[in-house]
Write a sequence for this structure.
C-alpha cells in the first residue's frame, strides 16, 4: 500500500512558532527555577516518602496502582512503537511504550524502563518528571527531566513547554522514514496522516490511517505494510488490551488545545513584564490572530470529520472519560457524538480543568469573553464569527448555558 505524504492543514501553526519564541531561562519565565503548582507536583512528596498505596510486587502491579493513585484511567492506554521518546533505545514494535492520560496529567511507561510523567502547570506549561520503578522496597526518586525539553519546546509544541504527538512512517526498528505534519497538532489534522508509529484498536472497518503500519521505501515512494496490534508483543505486559481510536482522538485534541493555551499564557506574561506589570491597551496584531485561532480551536471549528459510520469507542474508556462530566440540564461538554464528530456539544472540556482556571486572569477573561460573544445569537459578532459559524443555534445555546453554569467568571448577563 502506498500512502501520500501530503497535508491539507494550514501551515499557520508552524509559521506562528517561527515568529515568536520565549527564552525559558529569562527573568520573566524562569522555567527551570520556579516550582510548579500542578496536582502531580503537589503529590511528589507522598510518592517519594511511600505514602501512596502502591503495589511493589512488579512493574505491572506498580503501574496499575500508580494510575489509580493519580486518577488516570487504565483504559486511556495508547501504545506507540516509534522511537520518539526519551527512552527510545527500549521502544520498538515488540516493546511499545504505553501512554496514559486524564484531562491534565500524562504518564508514560516502557516495559523494562522508567516511568515518565508530564503534568500541566498554568504558569510554566508542561513539566516533565522521570523515575525508576522501585524494587526491593527502594525509595521512589522523582527527577525533573530537563532533557525532555529537546522535543517538548520546539516547533511541534509551538516553541513553548508543551506536549507532542508524532505521526511518522516507522521503519522496522521503530525509527522514522518520514514525519507527517511537523509543527502541527490537534483535532484538525486529517485522519489519513495520523497515528504513524502507533498501534490503534477499536477502528472497526476504518483503516485509512498510518496506525498499525510499518513504513517502507520502494523506488522512491513511501509505502507501508500491516502490523497488527499484539502480533509482536504480549498484551499481558500491559494493564489493558487496547490502544483505542477514541482515546487517540481525544488525546490529540487535548494536546492541540493545551499547547495553544500555554503559548498564549507565555505571550501574555511577556507583554505584562514589558509594560510595567500591566497589559498594553491593545495587543499585537499577531497575538490577536492567535487568540482568534484559539477560539476556533476551542469550538472545534475545523475538526477533521470522523470516518463514515463513526467510531464505537471502547466502552471502558467512554465510561472513564465521562466520570467527571459537569451536566447542566442533562447536557455536558463531555457528551460524545462519535457519528460524524467527537463531541455532541462542540466546545472543549479543557475549560473545566484546574490548568485553565489558573491561567493569567486577563487571558482567561479574554477567552471567556470571546466564547460568550461567539455563542451569543443576539449579537452581530455571534452571527458572523468564523469560530462558531459551524454551530447550529440550539447547539450554541446549550454550550453557552453550560459555560455560564460551570465556568467561574463566564459572562452571565444577557444582552
Amino acid at each position: 500500500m502506498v500512502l501520500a505524504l501530503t497535508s491539507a492543514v494550514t501551515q499557520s501553526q508552524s509559521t506562528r512558532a517561527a515568529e515568536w519564541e520565549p527564552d525559558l531561562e529569562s527573568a520573566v519565565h524562569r522555567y527551570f527555577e520556579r516550582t510548579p503548582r500542578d496536582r502531580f507536583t503537589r503529590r511528589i512528596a507522598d510518592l517519594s516518602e511511600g505514602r501512596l498505596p502502591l503495589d511493589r510486587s512488579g512493574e505491572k502491579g506498580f503501574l496499575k496502582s500508580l494510575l489509580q493513585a493519580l486518577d488516570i484511567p487504565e483504559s486511556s492506554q495508547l501504545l506507540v512503537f516509534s522511537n520518539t521518546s526519551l527512552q527510545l533505545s527500549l521502544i520498538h514494535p515488540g516493546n511499545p511504550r504505553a501512554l496514559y492520560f486524564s484531562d491534565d496529567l500524562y504518564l508514560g511507561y516502557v516495559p523494562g524502563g522508567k516511568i515518565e510523567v508530564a503534568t500541566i502547570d498554568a504558569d510554566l506549561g508542561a513539566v516533565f518528571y522521570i523515575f525508576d520503578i522501585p524494587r526491593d522496597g527502594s525509595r521512589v526518586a522523582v527527577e525533573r527531566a530537563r532533557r525532555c525539553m529537546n522535543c517538548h519546546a520546539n516547533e511541534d509544541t509551538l516553541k513553548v513547554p508543551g506536549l507532542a504527538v508524532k505521526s511518522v512512517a516507522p521503519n522496522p526498528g521503530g525509527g522514522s522514514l518520514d514525519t507527517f505534519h511537523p509543527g502541527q497538532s490537534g483535532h484538525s489534522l486529517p485522519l489519513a496522516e495520523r497515528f504513524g508509529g502507533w498501534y490503534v484498536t477499536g477502528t472497526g472497518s476504518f483503516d485509512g490511517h498510518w496506525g498499525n503500519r510499518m513504513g517502507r521505501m520502494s523506488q522512491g515512494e513511501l509505502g507501508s505494510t500491516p502490523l497488527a496490534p499484539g502480533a509482536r508483543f504480549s498484551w499481558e505486559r500491559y494493564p489493558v488490551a487496547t490502544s483505542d481510536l477514541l482515546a487517540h482522538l481525544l488525546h490529540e485534541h487535548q494536546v492541540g488545545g493545551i499547547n495553544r493555551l500555554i503559548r498564549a499564557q507565555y505571550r501574555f506574561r511577556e507583554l505584562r513584564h514589558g509594560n510595567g506589570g500591566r497589559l498594553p491597551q491593545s495587543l499585537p496584531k499577531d497575538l490577536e490572530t492567535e487568540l482568534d485561532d484559539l477560539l476556533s480551536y476551542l469550538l472545534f471549528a475545523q475538526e477533521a470529520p470522523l470516518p463514515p459510520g463513526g467510531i464505537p469507542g471502547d466502552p471502558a474508556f467512554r465510561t472513564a472519560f465521562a466520570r467527571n462530566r459537569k451536566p447542566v440540564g442533562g447536557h455536558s461538554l463531555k457528551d460524545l457524538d462519535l457519528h460524524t464528530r467527537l463531541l455532541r456539544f462542540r466546545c472543549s472540556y479543557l475549560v473545566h480543568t484546574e490548568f485553565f482556571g489558573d491561567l493569567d486572569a486577563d487571558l482567561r477573561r479574554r477567552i471567556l469573553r470571546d466564547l460568550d460573544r461567539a455563542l451569543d445569537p443576539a449579537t452581530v459578532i455571534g452571527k458572523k464569527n468564523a469560530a462558531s459559524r459551524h454551530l447550529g443555534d440550539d447547539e450554541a445555546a446549550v454550550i453557552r448555558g453550560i459555560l455560564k453554569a460551570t465556568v467561574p467568571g463566564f459572562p452571565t448577563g444577557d444582552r
Notes: Residues 372 and 411 are 7 Å apart (CA to CA). The first helix runs from residue 12 to 19.
